[in-house]
Amino acid sequence: MTGTVPIVVDVSGGNLVLVVVVALIALGALAMAAMFRAEVMSAAEGTDNMKSIAQAVQEGANAYLTRQFRTLAIFAGIAFFALLALPADDAVVRIFRSVAFLGGAGFSAAVGYFGMSLAVQANLRVAAAAQTQGRDPAMHIGFRTGATVGMLTVGLGLLGASVVVLCFQDDAPEVLEGFGFGAALLAMFMRVGGGIFTKAADVG
User: Fold this and answer.
1) What is the pLDDT of residues 10-22, one digit of tens each?
2) Is 9 within the bounds of a domain?
3) CA 194, CA 184: separation in Å to the nearest integer?
4) For 9, which DSSP code?
5) Contact, 129 vs 137, CB < 8 A?
6) Is residue 57 part of a domain?
């Protein structure tokens, strides 16, 4: 009808239940990620020589992540203020769109950091399992490592989105733009940087 403002997101009744269910699924995914990680970390680490090599790889990975995050922090700061300058329905939405951008970027950075850290530690345990127990136990550790990162990614993404919808309701789409942009931006940079790091590690 003319003169009425359409409701973009109606979080009430059945819709509210669905959003809460999504949030609970997100928490369940994060709990599964913690369980899988604990299972990976409980595996044997192998010989002292294997541990020494893994420690050197871990130091290199940490140096790469530190340098990359230092660079990405500059881009994130620029994007934060750029989003503030873009038009929105009101000042509150504009501010929280930028805050959500930082939240999405932080979630993406957390997945990248914990994913690479766990990958290095899991590689050691996969090699040790392959040496002492055979292929199947080594494959099990490898799959659990991938499941950890997958559940962490899904859990944080769904949790962030459901919290935004519950808090902002009608204005959620605009705030979610910032959340999704932050997560995608960090993921893109980390994917490119991670590929370069991997190729350098392969050559080394």
Assistant:
1) 666 778 888 899 9
2) no
3) 15
4) -
5) yes
6) yes
In this structure, are residues 174 and 97 in contact, taking their beta carbons and an 8 Å threshold? yes
Residue with tokens 């940079």: 189
Q: Which residue carries 């044997």 as its tokens?
A: 44
Count of domains observed in the chain: 1
Domain housing 85: 14-203
Specify the DSSP element, H or E, that contains 58: helix 48-85
Give the separation between CA 130 and CA 125, rounded to whole angstroms.
8
What gap in Å lies between CA 145 and CA 18, rounded to an integer?
A: 30
Read off φ and ψ for residue 32, nearest 5 degrees: -65, -35
Instruction: Tell me if 130 is assigned to some domain.
Output: yes
∠ Cα 67 73 79 (to 5°): 145
Q: Which helix (H) or strand (E) holds 85?
A: helix 48-85
> What does pTM read for this prediction?
0.81
